[in-house]
Write a structure and sequence with these properties.
It contains six helices and no strands. It is mainly α and 160 residues long. It is elongated, with a radius of gyration of 18 Å.
Amino acid sequence: MTDLIAIGVLVASGISDYLDGYLARKWNQVSRIGQLLDPLADALYIISTVFALTYREIIPLWLAILLVAREGLLFPLLPVLRHHGYGVLPVHFLGKAATFVLMYGFPLLLLSAQPGAAGAVAGPIAWAFTIWGACLYYWAFGLYVVQTVTVVRQARRVHG
């Protein structure tokens, strides 16, 4: 029963994240604080869920390290951007897509740990979403690195 509640929380979190962004854009309620907090909330969702899934031995440790390391690898880009007079990079579509795919995969991974037909059916789908999400997650990371390099090069051209 506890797992079903956790699945519901994961699903509700993913839906609320999507609706928050959708409604903010639709009603033109985009704010700088929202642009800063939304990626932070997504990272906390990913990290906390990964820890829980690892603790339950639903995902292997190497996958947990891979997903959490991506967040750790992004962190050093912030001081570099700030040093060159640029704030946090805007979230791009690929980053949103990666998070969206992982937010589908995680509840399905938890469901796959349940006995019975639902767990058996959810397993391959969950792993497909999770692996694809992890790949997109690192592809997005690569784009953030490219954006950072571009910002640094432009700043050096301007400031000599």
